[in-house]
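Page 47, continued from p. 46.
Same chain as before, 371 aa.
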Amino acid sequence: MPRRPVQRRHRLRARAAPRSREPDTGLRPVAPALRTAAAYAWRLLVVGALVYALFVVLGRFHEIAVAVFLGLVGTALLRPVADLLARRLPRALAVTLTLLGSIVIVFGILALIGETVAGERAGLQREFGAGIERIERWLEQPPFRLNPEALTDIQARIGRFLSSHRSTLISTALSGAGRLVEVVTVCALALFCSVFFLHSGDRQWGWFCAQLPVAVRGRVAVAGRAAWRTFTGYTHGIVLVAATNAILVGVALYALGVPLAMPLALLEFFAAFVPLIGSPIALAVAAVVALAAKGPVIAAVVVALIVIIGQIEGHVLHPLVMSWAVQLHPVIVALSVIGGAIAAGVIGAVVAVPLVSALWSARQAVRRTPA
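Result:
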């Protein structure tokens, strides 16, 4: 009789004891925080590698990538006009009128700028010559106190360099002519893409989605619509920001009497498409022109203009116009611009922010969509 409780205790201990134990390797267990950080780290590495590979491919086939990107930009800008005309006209005629009108406007602006520069050519030569002399006198005075002979020697060296490297300059000019042909080809391909994107972009996207497996077809369609909405909003926003900056710069430079006010305003318009760094570079060029043509006082006013317009763009225009279209932190925008510039040059810097924004919107839309 007394043996039964003892046997029962042995059975209870056998049940309570673990059946198998992990081998003791002598290593401490990994902390949960480190395990979570490692899991996120390799995912970030994979995403970074994919983004880098994408930019490398864009850089390798940059002519086609730029043409398609410009076609998408033109579609985002002209689609509302084409849709409005298509309410009363056939779709093909509405697209034709929209594209022809936009081409006429662009060439009209370029012709006006060319006529302005040609009309100011003689005065510009005199102003720049006098401006260079003023800069030399300014550098000879305190606090720089440069030797006048050093400045004269610099001019002589520049002349000797141009004469000795004439063949190099000619080859550079010929390569520039080749670049011009490349630019014309890219613009023609972009126009060709815009025609079909405006006329039947929805049907093309529907055909693409129809080629995918049924299990992912709906999620891809949702992601594509979200990415296009973000891209369209970004394009409208950046064009509005660029146009506002160009108008402010043009009016200010014209009021200050700085030559080439309209071309510099156009430079500011295109530079604004590179976030964070484009506008300061364009305004720095305007400051150099003001220094050469009008002296250090006007140049200092232009530098103050750089600061004011930068504050307006950073604290008023971008938060109001871009926040509803691009839900990205400024740090992500800066990293995207720098990463795109490293991977594909100026093209990558321009494409980086809309591409990252569209991908992020597609991801958010897919997460909200039930599987």
